[in-house]
Amino acid sequence: MSTKKALKWVGFWMALAIVFNIGILLIEGPAKASQFLGGYVIELSLSVDNLFLFLILFSSFGIPPAYQRRVLNYGIFGAIVLRLIFIVLGITLVNKIHFILYIFGVILIISGCKMMFGHEKPVDHKENKVLKIMGKFLPMTDKMHEEKFFIVENGKKYATPLLAILVLIESSDILFAIDSIPAIFSISTDPFIVYTSNIFAILGLRSLYFVLGALQERFKYVKYGVALILVFTGVKLGILFFELEIPILYSLLTIFTILIASVIFSVFKSKSEDKKKKEIELKRVDL
């Protein structure tokens, strides 16, 4: 998908989410509409970091862009199903054990701090434990076979690297849900609001992936904004223990401000780095 076409689709899915939000405003009132908007923005902003992981996975396995769309389609469908399961389980836990919200808050703060201050180490995704377990039950080929997940050679069934990528994407989404769903619980525990805000954010991920793929160098510092959002939502959940609550309007303003500021910083920082690289290259040429 070209960047121009991907941007149009991102705009379409965002417009659809806004229309749905207006519907909630008219039917359920401003409180529920604000909760949906908050959940949608949190999920969308946290998804950015997960999409960068997808870029790394496709690159490490050498998956051509032509075959990436099929994996993303299956991945999005799987995410929709997994989120429903996690949200139902999460809300059931919150209703039965209210104290778990404070635990979610601590998890989010720790995750945010790790993302902000942790040093990323090179990871060989081909040595992933999930793939090793999968390999014990299903042999895997080293070569791509177009868009096929399975092939049969000499009467024996083999998985292709495309299936390996799909398995890794689905398993990473499980880990991602551990952060994203508790973060939305800081805004609302209404099953309808939590699930629909998740779904509308997920539906636009495929298009957003292709935008980030083309502009990843420009947005590589957005992860620090995502980390701050995680910390903020963790604090928002944690202070409930002291019977303190941040109003939804202030929460939305804080999340929007962090997200927009991180995007602006990332763009300017990337441009500054590009300028320095060009100056260094010019000096080398002169020498």
TrEMBL record:
Keywords: Membrane, Transmembrane, Transmembrane helix. It is a multi-pass membrane protein. Its main location: membrane. The keyword Manganese does not apply. It is found in: Membrane. It comes from the Bacteria. The chain crosses the membrane at residues 7-27, 39-59, 71-93, 99-117, 162-186, 192-212, 224-242, 248-268. One of its GO terms (cellular component) is membrane. Belongs to the TerC family. This is Integral membrane protein TerC.
